[in-house]
Specification:
two-stranded antiparallel sheet; 4-stranded antiparallel beta sheet; binds iron/sulfur cluster; globular; alpha+beta
Length: 178
């Protein structure tokens, strides 16, 4: 699904409808905290982390299934996420988006949060926004907070940190076996 940005300035009601294509064909960056949290939920990084070379940086990206490009944690039967309580911060932000620059969409305005100037959007093609019988209300503040958290974590995510994380995990697994 392509993100159709619509300015997000007021709280919206939301209920996820588990659309079958939502978790397919996406390029989802992982932070070290994401990798640590998902591993802590019992998943081996070898099964869900892939690498993408971007300029002089290596990025960590959530793995997808070959047959339908669905995320490895997506349940194709129910459309639900198998790591819902540990899922990556990017997945927690979607169907919203946080940008440091305006995207050129009608009605957009900067949103000031914690001294930062941000532009917030939601995906107009997501039917869960303003759906009937909503489960929750999402505010611009909580999305801005997640966006800044992603930015901080992403900046600290690199190969050295990944190697250190794997070392720690292997050390823990070894001491559990003893
Ligand atoms: S498109 Fe929206 S409602 Fe559908 S699964 Fe994704 S987040 Fe949920
Ligand atoms: S981790 Fe969960 S929410 Fe994120 S893309 Fe995969 S299935 Fe979807």
């Amino acid at each position: 699904m392509r993100f159709k940005p619509k300015p997000f300035r007021e709280p919206v009601s939301f209920r996820c409808l588990y659309c079958p294509d939502c978790c397919r064909g996406r390029h989802i960056y992982l932070t070290l905290n994401d990798i640590e949290r998902i591993s802590g939920a019992g998943h081996d990084p070898q099964d869900f982390v892939t690498f993408s070379v971007e300029g002089d940086k290596i990025r960590f990206v959530l793995a997808v299934r070959e047959w339908d490009l669905g995320c490895v944690f997506h349940d194709p039967e129910t459309g639900k996420c198998r790591v819902h309580y540990a899922n990556p911060i990017i997945c927690r932000i979607y169907p919203f988006m946080v940008s440091r620059k305006p995207l050129g969409v009608d009605g957009e305005m900067p949103f000031e949060y914690m001294g930062q100037r941000l532009w917030l959007y939601y995906d107009e093609s997501c039917p869960g926004i303003n759906a009937e019988e909503p489960e929750t209300t999402i505010t611009p503040e909580e999305i801005a907070e997640l966006g800044l958290r992603f930015e901080r974590e992403f900046e600290r995510t690199d190969m050295a940190g990944f190697a250190e994380l794997l070392d720690t995990m292997m050390g823990e697994a070894f001491s559990e076996e003893k």
